[in-house]
Amino acid sequence: MVIFMRDFVAEMGQDQTKQQIEKGLKLYQSNDTEKALYVWMKVLRKTSDPGGKFRVLGCLITAHSEMGKYKEMLQYSLAQINTAREMEDPDYLTEGYLNLARSNEKLCEFQKTVSYCETCLNMQGTTVSLQLNGQVCLSMGNAYLGISVFQKALVSYEKALRYAHNNDDKMLECRVCCSLGNFYIQLKDYEKALFFPCKAAELVNDYGKGWSLKYRAMSQYHMSVAYRKLMRLPDAMECCEVICEVKEHLVVGHLSHLGECLREDILSVVNESMKIALQHGDRPLQALCLLNFADIHRCQKDVDKAFPRYESSMCIMSEIGNRLGQASIYVGVGKCWILQKEYDKALDSMQRAHDLAEAIGNKLCILKVHSLCEGIYRSKEQQDELREQVVKFLQCVEELELYCGMCGESIGERNQQLQALPCSHIFHLKCLQTNGTKGCPKCHRSSMKLGFV
Is the pTM of the predicted complex or chain greater than 0.90? Predict the structure, then answer.
């Protein structure tokens, strides 16, 4: 009888924990984040159920990720993995390591992300953990892209897409398409960079009725970046701006972060992604939108509007710990100084970008800095510094292997159509079309069927 009562009380406790977690989720989905966090923290303090503790930690991880509180996200991920170890359940362990990987990815600790993803993929779990493998491959692809290892990034994205298709996981497919858009932005195939976020937007329209609005915002943001790179600036602005009325209470709490530059147009023309970010307190998305606005203004040679937007974006990027984003801002600021022929200020910005990129291992950003510094020293007619930058630039190109294995010309120097083979080696599309062979010139695999990505 005592054992029965003890089991009954335990089951009651588990039911109450589940009800409170669901209560928090409803609050969170209605944008009442503070109350949701309060409910979940209360559950975390009181529950003795390991399964309930694991689930509520998962909710806290997701919430802090979307708020851009990545250090707190990491702390909850560490607590979750400790809970999973106590339970000795491979499915929980896989999910825990995935959240650890995501936390480190957000903090630009890309080597750690790869390591945790590999741990996930090596776990001998059940069907549940196998379904997470697509998300693991996506996170691994993002990490490899963060350290500019392009072939491995592409291999990971292709695996993630296969998992998405095999499991009919449209949300995962949408996220992978956005990451592929970013991949081709970096390699300067802007047609593909536009194609994939457009595909993501189609998925949102066709299947995303019950999805979080962040998926729509994410696809819109990546489309706008691609339009900007194609110098279709009106399309970029049309994509990221919609005429809408924003209730004052949605804006007031955020204007200090957006900067004075948005006060003049926030009530009449608002970035659609920014609007969603404001509604959901999505600080990382706000920072990206501000950076995109700044880059658009820079492309229009309107540096007076670009500078304050870079500054506002930097405030958020620094707050959340996105060092790769900070490096991108310094590059953009440096380009603005170049437009104004303020070369010493430009060099200062480039050095800051270089230091951040070197710390996180992003070789492509380092290459961009050397390329821009080369142009600056050429303008300043400083031959010794110019030669030094040329040497460093060529070393980066060699390390990144950014050249076509057929024609030998560089990849990523200008907008060109690229094509990946099934082995994930990348070539100029025109080279594959005109110099077709029976195998990949790099690894000599026999299949020459063009890959989807």
Answer: no
